[in-house]
Task: structure prediction
Amino acid sequence: MRLFIAVTFSQPIQEKLEGILCLLKEQAFAGNFSSRENLHLTLAFLGDIPSCRLSHVIDAMEQIHTKPFLCSLSSLGCFGKMKKEADSRESSVLWIGTDYCPELLNLQNELTASLRRHAVWYDSKPFRPHVTLGRNVRLNPEFSEEHFCQNLPEMCQQVTGISLMKSERKNNKTVYTELYRKIL
Result:
């Protein structure tokens, strides 16, 4: 099973993110945009985990003692360069990031330490808290990131739990299914 652990969003935040996605789609001539139901903030990507190891992942999640906290989403960003050229072949990932949130950083650190103690592999790339909005996005040349960011809605959510998610392909779509939720 292909798994990751994430913060999921309330319906009001999902609606705001969906509105941002619609605006970005209007400003893009290409891209593979995330669907509303797949929007999340990954804390740890686990990759392919055999079902016999699932209990180790859940045990690691149960060791988390972080209390609920507020987290805000506020800035547009991109892994790679923001693409505005039709002929560019470079891949880019467009995302919305969080404001600085020490509680979120502590949660991710506590989670990965617990995964290590339970001998659960995870991708150890540096943590950059973000919500992926689209991949291979090519924006219109007149797109203004500064103007776009000035008009982002306020998005603040109480983080009250973390979710173990399964990722799979169904009917040529990526589908995420929550397998377990740890309440903070």
User: Anything to note?
Assistant: DSSP finds four helices and nine strands in the chain.
